[in-house]
UniProtKB/TrEMBL annotation:
Catalytic activity of the protein: 8 isopentenyl diphosphate + (2E,6E)-farnesyl diphosphate = di-trans,octa-cis-undecaprenyl diphosphate + 8 diphosphate
Summary of the function given for this chain in its UniProt record: Catalyzes the sequential condensation of isopentenyl diphosphate (IPP) with (2E,6E)-farnesyl diphosphate (E,E-FPP) to yield (2Z,6Z,10Z,14Z,18Z,22Z,26Z,30Z,34E,38E)-undecaprenyl diphosphate (di-trans,octa-cis-UPP). UPP is the precursor of glycosyl carrier lipid in the biosynthesis of bacterial cell wall polysaccharide components such as peptidoglycan and lipopolysaccharide.
Residue numbers binding Mg(2+): D25, E207
Bound cofactor: record note: Binds 2 magnesium ions per subunit.
PANTHER family noted in UniProt: DEHYDRODOLICHYL DIPHOSPHATE SYNTHASE 2, DEHYDRODOLICHYL DIPHOSPHATE SYNTHASE FAMILY MEMBER
GO CC aspect terms: cytosol
Protein name (Swiss-Prot/TrEMBL): Ditrans,polycis-undecaprenyl-diphosphate synthase ((2E,6E)-farnesyl-diphosphate specific)
Pfam family, one: Prenyltransf
Gene, per the UniProt record: uppS
Protein's UniProt keywords contain Magnesium: yes
Organism encoding this protein: Catenovulum agarivorans DS-2
Amino acid sequence: MTTALETIKKINPAAYPKHVGIIMDGNGRWAKQQGKPRTFGHKAGVESVRAAVRFAQQHQLDVLTLFAFSSENWKRPEQEVSVLMELFMFVLTKEVKRLNRNNVRLKIIGDVSRFNDRLQKKIAESEALTKENDGLLLCVAANYGGRWDIANAVNRHIEKTGCTTLTEEDISANISLAEFTPLDLIIRTGGETRISNFLLWHAAYAEFYFTDELWPDFREESFAKAVQCFSLRQRRFGLTGDQVENA
Ligand code: FPP
């Protein structure tokens, strides 16, 4: 049987998404299925993060944005939040040199001011180390909320210009990742079909791909299936199908 990884090799790479956002859901359920604590699932999820980054590099994506911790996740049990923080710290410490060697630029979006000083320092160091890299942009959304991002963009514009009547362009210019390739595709694992306050502004014309696979099971073949599905979509951006075909 032909795999999706083989199939997408035959597709013109121009049809691949250039910016993919992933809502990595299902770690807790994956762990529960094995009779393990939820945090076991988060740890296993790190291997899927590695696989997604590898896939993104091999398929010339410009940007991969991973939703690692939402502004609502603070409401989870204290022990789980603390393990997630340690995991971010561990991943940054362990992986950033390798990312740098692979020409990956790392960027964190979200309100990092709520993280402890040690983690904030690690984030700043990791971003500084990789900031000249012009390969894949690996963006990690941490303490991120789409509504926070929009409110932040509005405030930034007002601070810069003093003008309180905003256009869509003003928000687009001040939103996170404004300077990078626009979002093409949002993948959500774990069977839920909602956006959960992820890249709300950016998602206006993005395609969605939902899979029941739990995040720790999501590997290169799963990513390839999402890309294959994306390549078959017709993105109309408000036009008719005929207009798009004739363009
Ligand atoms: C959602 O699954 C997953 C998270 C809130 C955390 C994701 C974090 C990682 C994969 C590890 C670190 C990642 C980086 C980029 C450093 P869930 O707990 O909501 O699962 P459930 O729906 O089954 O309960």
